[in-house]
Specification:
Layout (H helix, E strand, L loop, with lengths): L4 E3 L3 H11 L1 E5 L4 H17 L12 E6 L11 H6 L3 H11 L2 E11 L18 E6 L11 E3 L3 H11 L23 E2 L7 E5 L3 E3 L10 E10 L1
Parallel strand pairs: 1-2
Antiparallel strand pairs: 2-8, 3-4, 4-10, 5-8, 5-10, 6-7, 6-9
């Protein structure tokens, strides 16, 4: 985990970690004062748009939107917008993806593991760059993200064979012939305000454990190549 950590004033290190490891963690990407403002916007948005939440993720509260919709880009919701449109994010994205476009933004408040393909070790069949702001502390007790760094070449080989067979669990209908157990992945435990950036060519899995009363708040951005 330590080798994945970097800081927002070291753009070259961020890019190198993503290119070589597939993932990095920017510590204290958002300071405490700004994070408080972001969390207020987070809670307000989920309350205002409660009738638009994805029913497939209940009881978790998951809203899918876009960086340029009124949900985020309006006068009283500027912190989340600036979170992912600043010069650092743009420069990193250009160096990793080249020409890129903003896809979805997910604002989600999770209490429970919802068993989907996301919870198996996998790579995304559509390559993206994802940014994952931890609004609260995240660890193995409240569904922290997991990754298997430094396996980019393996994924590139699997993509050439069949990018749809993107799961590393025997018996799954999308199993690609190479087994990787969930326990082999590294829990990406972070403090509130940390930002996880990962290339979806990095083998990863969604959080699989929530102790009673625990939750996570995440703002997640997806970018793709034009």
């Amino acid at each position: 985990m330590e080798k994945l950590i970097t800081f927002k004033n070291n753009e070259n290190d961020i890019v190198n970690k993503i290119k070589n490891q597939g993932i990095c963690v920017i510590k204290n990407y958002v300071n405490r004062e700004k994070l408080n403002n972001i969390e207020q916007e987070f809670d307000t948005i989920l309350d205002i748009y409660k009738n638009h939440l994805d029913p497939n993720y209940e009881p978790n509260r998951n809203l899918r939107t876009n960086i340029n919709t009124d949900v985020i880009n309006k006068t009283n919701n500027t912190n989340i917008y600036l979170l992912y449109t600043n010069e650092l994010i743009v420069n990193i994205s250009k160096k990793i993806l080249g020409n890129f476009k903003y896809d979805s933004v997910f604002i989600h408040h999770d209490f429970k593991n919802i068993r989907t393909n996301n919870t198996y070790p996998h790579f995304d069949y559509a390559r993206k760059l994802k940014f994952y702001l931890c609004v609260n502390d995240m660890n193995i007790t409240n569904g922290c993200f997991k990754a298997f760094p430094n396996k980019m070449k393996l994924v590139e080989e699997k993509r050439k064979i069949n990018r749809r067979n993107n799961i590393f669990t025997p018996g799954h209908k999308l199993y690609n012939g190479t087994e990787i157990k969930l326990k082999e992945l590294t829990p990406i435990e972070c403090d509130a305000g940390d930002l996880i950036i990962f290339d979806t060519n990095c083998i990863h899995a969604g959080g699989d454990n929530f102790e009673e009363g625990k939750y996570r708040k995440v703002i997640r951005l997806h970018l793709s190549q034009r």
